[in-house]
Structure to design on (231 residues):
């Protein structure tokens, strides 16, 4: 059972544009929603995370928007740069895991064209 | 802070041999570490939860005798792939939680690329 559904699978954006990646979750008990950035051959790096008691969190050019009623959260990258080209994963705590591993979305490959 | 390292970064071995991968939290103690596996252009799949001082918890479908996990200290977990076969070739990534609690961040190591010939 897929617990976190991510879209789109790939995204091409022009430099300076806005990149938007969406995730939907099923388990309303989830209480932590991080986004990770991964470059080829590297481990994922925590980008930004949000708790469900807020609707938006912004850190620099990166913003998470959270819609609790729709069970969706999205990542917005403002003023996208070629250096942002990477694969982005949303995640949520794995259900039933007492130690709180993460279940990852399927990933979005972002390409920012100069 | 919150740095997680892995060693080796890349390993090539012959089929039938065993390979050990180390995961260390460099500047914090982690009672819980996690091991993930990632195939090319795919997402990360949780293999097991490594618990300091106790047995690891494996996900469904992961062979515990194949993938041995030892959480020897609060800063070190090891994954040993025993009797490796070409289908075990993958990118193995560990992570550690910065602290216990509901919303603690999870930090990942740089990964280990395993190629079994």
């Amino acid at each position: 059972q897929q617990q976190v559904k991510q879209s789109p699978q790939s995204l091409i954006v022009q430099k300076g544009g806005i990149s938007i990646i969406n995730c939907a979750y099923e388990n309303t008990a989830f209480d932590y929603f991080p986004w990770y950035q991964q470059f080829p051959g590297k481990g994922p790096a925590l980008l930004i995370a949000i708790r469900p008691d807020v609707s938006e969190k912004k850190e620099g050019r990166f913003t998470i928007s959270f819609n609790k009623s729709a069970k969706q959260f999205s990542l917005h990258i403002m003023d996208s740069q070629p250096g942002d080209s990477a694969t982005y994963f949303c995640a949520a705590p794995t259900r039933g895991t007492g130690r709180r591993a993460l279940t990852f979305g399927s990933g979005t490959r972002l390409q920012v064209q100069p | 802070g919150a740095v997680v390292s892995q060693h080796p970064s890349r390993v090539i071995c012959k089929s039938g041999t065993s390979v050990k991968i180390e995961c260390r939290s460099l500047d914090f103690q982690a009672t819980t570490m996690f091991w993930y596996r990632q195939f090319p252009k795919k997402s990360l799949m949780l293999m097991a939860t490594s618990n300091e001082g106790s047995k690891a918890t494996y996900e469904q479908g992961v062979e515990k005798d194949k993938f041995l996990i030892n959480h020897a200290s609060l800063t070190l977990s090891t994954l040993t792939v025993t009797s490796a076969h070409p289908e075990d070739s993958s990118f193995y990534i560990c992570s550690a939680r910065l602290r216990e609690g509901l919303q603690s961040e999870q930090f990942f190591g740089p990964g280990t690329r395993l190629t079994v010939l």
Summary: The first strand of chain A starts at residue 4 and ends at 7.
